[in-house]
Specification:
The chain is an all-alpha fold. Helices cover about 75% and strands about 0% of the residues.
Length: about 140
């Protein structure tokens, strides 16, 4: 049962930019968790305070939409990188740079993902052909 679920998850993961969407969602989550202002303070500050919560929330939503609907990945990745860079000004320097970097890396991975690419089966090691001189030296 667990083997079938793992195989199904791997197949699902290979059909979408999984790591890009996950990193973008994690970046938005990290920025949201580093926000410490209460709603009363946010409303007092105005639009700047609201943007501090709005941008990382939309980053999180973009990351989830990349995972669930990879057909629109280019739009979501461009929106994700713009939102990540916008959090530099609105959300504690982008969640103390961690959320900003996670969001930017996830957006770049998503933008560069190609859907018709063969899934990797593992790292293949290339072996050098042994020369006859090496064989005689070892004997």
């Amino acid at each position: 049962m667990a083997g079938r679920a793992r195989t199904a998850f791997r197949r699902w993961r290979s059909d979408r930019p999984f790591w890009g969407g996950l990193l973008l969602a994690l970046g938005g989550t990290e920025i949201l968790l580093t926000e410490k202002a209460s709603l009363k303070v946010v409303m007092h500050i105005g639009m700047q305070g609201l943007a501090g919560y709005l941008l990382p929330t939309v980053m999180l939503v973009c990351g989830l939409l990349i995972l669930l609907g990879p057909a629109q990945r280019l739009f979501y990745s461009v929106l994700g990188i713009l939102l990540s860079l916008g959090t530099w000004l609105t959300s504690n320097l982008g969640g103390f740079l961690v959320g900003l970097l996670l969001g930017a890396a996830g957006s770049c991975l998503t933008f560069g993902w190609l859907p018709d690419q063969e899934p990797r089966r593992g790292v293949l090691r290339r072996r050098r052909p042994r020369s006859p001189a090496m064989d005689s030296a070892t004997s």
